[in-house]
Amino acid sequence: MSTIISRISYLRELRRELLNYKGNALREFYYLEPEDLEQRSAANKWSIIDVFEHLNLVNYFYIKSFEQGLENAPDATDDRFSHSWLGKKSIQSMRPDQKGNIRKIPTFRKINPLYHQKKGRVLVAQVVFQDFIESMEQLIALAEKMEDKAIQSVNVKTLLPFIKLPLGDALGFITAHTQRHIVQAQKLAADIRAKQ
Fold it and tell me: Which residue of 18, 57, 98, 152 is most buried, as measured by CB atoms within 10 A?
């Protein structure tokens, strides 16, 4: 049985998290030297800029999905919210553990920045970061719009074609996904500083 919480408190907490990740990107990474942003420990490993490009690819998909979900979501009649079983598991799978460790999960080709670069895409750090900032602002605005909606009554598409999640769970998932990769980028930056 899933715990019932306040929908509005839940959404406001997610908005605070997303705002924090936007701030992290600006403070910790935006002004790094291009060679540091692009540094890879191996040819098949991601650099800091690759991490943010991956976030952009994922966020672009989910922002569209959330916009469609909001169009179909009925107005809320109360402030109750509870996670679905699958939503709760999906969010937990994305979050780093208490020690900051990230469980490895395979990345689909369509959201893998290395695949797109092999196909000719060139990453420009400032453009990638601007896209990330804009996606955070869009997600924050969507979370605010969800406050008036019954976010568990409408399911939205995920990157797995056969799985849909309730809108509120999907927003929790994308927030956890952002946390996961901010932690990854922080570890990459720490490794670069340790080698300097």
Answer: 18
Q: What are phi and psi of 75, to 5 degrees?
A: -65, 145
Q: Is residue 196 predicted with pLDDT exceeding 80? A: no
What are 57-70's pLDDT values in tens digits?
Answer: 999 999 999 999 99
159 within 8 A of 61, measured Cβ to Cβ: yes
Q: What is the dihedral of CA 112, 55, 86, 2, to 10 degrees?
A: 160
Say how far residue 52 (Cα) sits from the centre of its chain.
10
Q: If we measure between CA atoms, which residue out of 5, 170, 6 comes closest to residue 90?
A: 170
* CATH code of residue 82: 1.20.120.450
pLDDT tens sequence across 138-147: 999 999 999 9
Handedness of CA 91, 97, 100, 102 (dihedral sign): negative
Between CA 139 and CA 175 the distance in angstroms is 9
Instruction: Enter the DSSP assignment of 17.
Output: H
Strands (E) located in 65-167: 80-81, 155-157, 164-166
Give the structural domain span for 164.
Answer: 5-195
Number of folded domains that form the chain: 1
